[in-house]
C-alpha cells in the first residue's frame, strides 16, 4: 500500500502555513464550506502532477511525503518547478527519448499512472464523472489491464512490438542491410522518392546527351557571329581613328587663328578681371554703378541750390529783423503821435508774417538738406562697398576703368571667349603617342561613316557587350559539351542505383505486408482479451455496486470501456448518457465511484495507490451515505489509503459506530 503521510502547504490560497498528517489508512476531513478542503485536494494533485502554468501557486510551496513498503518519497513543489527525493536522495525525472528531453511527473514515477488515469480513477472531485475515452486512449495502461489475470501475456507484448516496428523505429542494420530509418511508412516513402529522383535525373541526363549535335551547331553559329562583331569593331574603330586625326588637325588650325586674334586684343587683357567681377555682380548692383555718377551729380546740384537758398533766407531774415526792430523803436519814440504809432504797428505785422514764412521755409530746407546729405552718404558708402569688391580704393579710378570697360565690352568678351576656346582646343589636342596610335588603326580603304562617329562610344559598348555575351555563350557551350561526356558515366551509375532502390523498396513493402498481416491476427486475439477483461470487470463492478447501493444493480462494460447500467426500477439498460438524466444524484455518485474503484484496481495492478475523494456522497440520502461510507472505511481502506473530504458535519453522528476505523481531521489550524 502506498500512503500519503504528510503534506505541508505554505502561502497557497488561504493557507499561510498548514501541515496535515495522515497517520490512519482512512482519514475523514469534515469542515464547513470555503474552509479549504478543495484547496487541500487540489494541492495534492498539483504536487503529484504539476502543470506548466498553475493558477494555484504564486510564490507558494507544497511539500508532500509519501511512503510505500520499501521506499520513502518527498515531493517539493514550488512556483519555479519541483524536486523529487527518494529515500533522501534526489531522483532524476528527466530522460532522453530519440533526442528529446522527456519529463516525468512525481505521480507517474511513484504511482506509474498518468495524470488522466489518476484523475479518472483515484482522484474524485465534486460532480466528476469518468472520462473513459481518455482512459482508453492510453495504450500502455489498457494493455497492462488486458494482461491482468492471464498466464500468457504474449498478445499485448507482440502487439506493442509490431506497433513499434510499424510506426516508431525501423533502423538500418537491425533489420535491413541498407540505409533506412524512422517509421516504416516513412522509409517506404523515402525510397520511393529516391527512386523517382533517380529516374527523373536519368531522364533529364538522357535528354541532355541528345543535345550534342545541337551544341556543335550552336558553337559554329556563335563563332561566326563573333567574327562579324570583330569586323564591325575594326571598321568603327578605323573610322573613329580617322575622325580623331582630322579633328586634331582642325583644332590646331583654329588654335592658330584664336592666338593671332587674341594677340590683337592684348591691350584689353587688363580689363578682363574687372569685367568678370562686374558680371558677377547682381543686376541691381550693376544698375547702381551704371547710374551712380548721374544720380550723385544730380543730388549734389540739388543740395548746392538748397544750401544757397538757405543762406539767402538767413541774410534776408537778419535784415527783416533789424527793420522790424527799427520800426518798433521809432513807433515807441513817436508814441505820442497816435497816427505814427499805429502806422508803425501796422507796418510791422506784415513784416513779422513774412519773417515767419521765411523761418518755415528755412526749416523745410534744413530737413531736405539733411535727407540729401544722408542719401549722399548712403550712396557713397554703397558705392565704396561695391568698389571694394574690385580691389580698387579710389572711386575716381574705379569709374575711369569702368567707363573704359563699358566702351570696349565687345572686345573684352571676344578675348575671354577666345581664351576659353583656346584652352578647350589645347585639352583636346592629341599627343604624339596618341597620333601614332590612331594612325595605326586607320584602314587604307573605306569612307568615314559620320553617323557612327557621333554614337561611337555607345555603338562600341554595344558591340563589346555583344562580344562578351558571345564569348560567355561559347564557354558555356564548351562546358555543356564536356558535361555530356560526364553525364554518360552518371547515367550508368544511376542505372545501378535504380536497380538497388527497386530491390530495397520491394523488400520494405513485403515486410510491411507481413507486419500488417501479423498485426491483424494479434489484434483479433487482443480484442478477445478485451472482451474477457470487460466480462471480469462486469462481475466485480456489479458486486461492488450492489454492496454500496444495497440493490441488485448490474453494470456492463464493453470492450472500449463504455458501460451500461441495469437497475430494478427501470426495465431497460441505461447508457452512460442516460444515467444522469434517469437516475437520482445519489445513485449517479455511487455508480461513478464504483467505476473508479474498479478501474483503479485494474489499471494500477498490484500498486495500491491512495484514493482522494471530495464529497463522494453529496447527493445521497442518509441510508446510502452510511452504506457507502462503511464500504469505503471498512473494505477499501484495508487495501488502499482513503482520504475523504466533506462539508456535511451533521452526518458525523451517523458514523459513531465506525469511530475507531477512521481518523477525523480538521482543515482549521
Automatic annotation (TrEMBL):
Entry-linked SUPFAM superfamilies? P-loop containing nucleoside triphosphate hydrolases
A matching Pfam family: AAA_23
Q: Which Gene3D superfamilies match?
A: P-loop containing nucleotide triphosphate hydrolases
Ranges for domain Rad50/SbcC-type AAA come to 6-239
Q: Does the keyword tRNA processing apply?
A: no
The membrane spanning regions, by residue number, are 320-337
GO BP terms in the entry: double-strand break repair
Q: Which residues form a coiled coil?
A: 181-309, 355-389, 453-511
Any GO molecular function:
ATP hydrolysis activity
Q: Which UniProt keywords apply?
A: Coiled coil, Membrane, Transmembrane, Transmembrane helix
Task: List the protein's name.
Answer: AAA family ATPase
This chain's source organism reads: Thermodesulfovibrio autotrophicus
Amino acid at each position: 500500500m502506498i500512503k500519503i503521510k504528510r503534506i505541508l502547504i505554505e502561502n497557497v490560497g488561504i493557507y499561510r502555513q498548514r501541515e496535515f498528517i495522515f497517520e490512519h489508512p482512512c482519514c475523514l476531513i469534515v469542515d464547513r464550506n470555503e474552509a479549504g478542503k478543495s484547496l487541500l485536494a487540489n494541492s495534492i494533485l498539483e504536487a503529484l502532477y504539476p502543470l506548466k502554468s498553475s493558477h494555484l501557486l504564486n510564490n507558494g510551496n507544497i511539500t508532500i511525503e509519501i511512503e510505500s513498503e520499501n521506499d520513502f518519497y518527498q515531493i517539493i513543489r514550488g512556483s519555479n518547478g519541483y524536486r523529487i527525493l527518494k529515500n533522501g536522495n534526489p531522483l532524476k525525472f528527466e530522460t532522453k527519448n530519440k533526442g528529446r528531453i522527456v519529463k516525468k511527473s512525481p505521480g507517474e514515477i511513484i504511482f506509474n499512472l498518468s495524470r488522466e488515469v489518476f484523475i479518472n480513477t483515484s482522484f474524485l472531485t465534486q460532480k466528476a464523472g469518468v472520462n473513459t475515452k481518455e482512459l482508453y486512449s492510453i495504450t500502455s495502461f489498457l494493455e497492462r489491464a488486458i494482461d491482468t489475470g492471464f498466464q500468457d501475456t504474449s498478445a499485448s507484448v507482440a502487439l506493442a512490438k509490431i506497433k513499434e516496428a510499424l510506426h516508431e523505429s525501423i533502423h538500418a542494420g537491425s533489420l535491413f542491410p541498407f540505409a533506412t530509418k524512422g517509421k516504416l511508412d516513412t522509409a517506404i516513402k523515402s525510397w520511393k522518392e529516391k527512386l523517382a529522383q533517380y529516374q527523373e535525373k536519368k531522364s533529364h541526363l538522357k535528354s541532355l546527351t541528345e543535345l550534342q549535335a545541337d551544341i556543335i551547331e550552336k558553337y559554329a553559329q556563335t563563332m561566326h557571329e563573333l567574327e562579324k562583331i570583330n569586323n564591325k569593331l575594326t571598321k568603327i574603330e578605323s573610322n573613329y581613328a580617322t575622325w580623331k586625326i582630322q579633328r586634331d588637325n582642325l583644332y590646331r588650325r583654329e588654335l592658330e587663328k584664336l592666338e593671332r586674334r587674341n594677340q590683337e586684343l592684348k591691350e584689353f587683357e587688363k580689363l578682363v578681371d574687372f569685367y568678370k567681377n562686374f558680371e558677377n555682380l547682381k543686376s541691381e548692383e550693376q544698375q547702381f554703378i551704371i547710374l551712380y555718377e548721374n544720380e550723385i551729380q544730380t543730388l549734389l546740384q540739388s543740395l548746392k541750390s538748397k544750401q544757397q537758398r538757405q543762406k539767402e533766407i538767413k541774410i534776408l531774415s537778419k535784415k527783416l529783423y533789424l527793420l522790424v526792430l527799427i520800426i518798433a523803436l521809432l513807433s515807441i519814440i513817436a508814441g505820442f503821435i497816435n497816427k505814427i504809432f499805429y502806422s508803425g504797428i501796422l507796418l510791422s505785422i506784415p513784416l513779422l508774417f513774412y519773417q515767419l514764412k521765411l523761418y518755415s521755409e528755412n526749416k523745410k530746407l534744413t530737413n531736405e538738406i539733411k535727407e540729401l546729405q544722408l542719401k549722399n552718404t548712403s550712396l557713397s558708402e554703397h558705392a565704396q562697398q561695391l568698389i571694394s569688391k574690385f580691389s580698387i580704393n579710389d572711386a575716381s579710378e574705379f569709374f575711369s576703368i569702368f567707363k573704359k570697360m563699358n566702351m570696349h565690352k565687345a572686345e573684352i568678351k571676344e578675348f575671354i571667349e577666345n581664351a576659353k576656346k583656346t584652352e578647350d582646343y589645347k585639352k583636346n589636342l592629341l599627343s604624339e603617342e596618341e597620333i601614332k596610335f590612331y594612325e595605326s588603326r586607320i584602314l587604307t580603304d573605306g569612307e568615314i561613316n559620320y553617323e557612327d562617329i557621333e554614337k561611337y562610344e555607345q555603338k562600341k559598348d554595344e558591340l563589346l557587350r555583344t562580344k562578351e555575351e558571345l564569348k560567355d555563350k561559347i564557354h558555356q557551350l564548351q562546358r555543356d559539351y564536356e558535361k555530356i561526356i560526364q553525364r554518360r558515366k552518371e547515367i550508368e551509375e544511376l542505372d545501378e542505383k535504380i536497380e538497388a532502390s527497386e530491390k530495397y523498396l520491394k523488400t520494405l513493402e513485403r515486410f510491411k505486408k507481413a507486419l500488417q498481416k501479423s498485426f491483424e491476427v494479434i489484434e483479433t486475439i487482443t480484442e478477445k482479451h478485451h472482451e474477457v477483461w470487460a466480462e471480469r470487470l462486469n462481475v466485480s463492478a456489479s458486486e461492488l455496486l450492489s454492496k454500496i447501493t444495497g440493490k441488485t444493480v448490474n453494470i456492463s462494460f464493453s470492450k472500449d470501456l463504455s458501460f451500461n447500467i441495469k437497475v430494478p426500477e427501470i426495465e431497460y439498460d441505461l447508457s452512460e448518457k442516460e444515467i444522469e438524466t434517469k437516475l437520482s444524484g445519489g445513485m449517479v455518485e455511487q455508480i461513478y465511484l464504483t467505476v473508479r474503484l474498479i478501474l483503479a484496481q485494474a489499471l494500477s495492478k498490484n500498486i495500491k495507490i491512495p484514493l482522494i475523494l471530495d464529497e463522494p456522497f453529496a447527493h445521497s440520502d442518509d441510508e446510502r451515505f452510511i452504506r457507502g461510507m462503511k464500504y469505503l472505511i471498512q473494505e477499501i481502506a484495508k487495501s488502499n489509503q482513503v482520504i475523504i473530504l466533506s462539508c456535511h458535519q451533521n452526518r458525523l453522528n451517523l458514523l459513531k459506530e465506525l469511530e475507531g476505523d477512521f481518523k477525523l481531521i480538521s482543515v482549521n489550524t
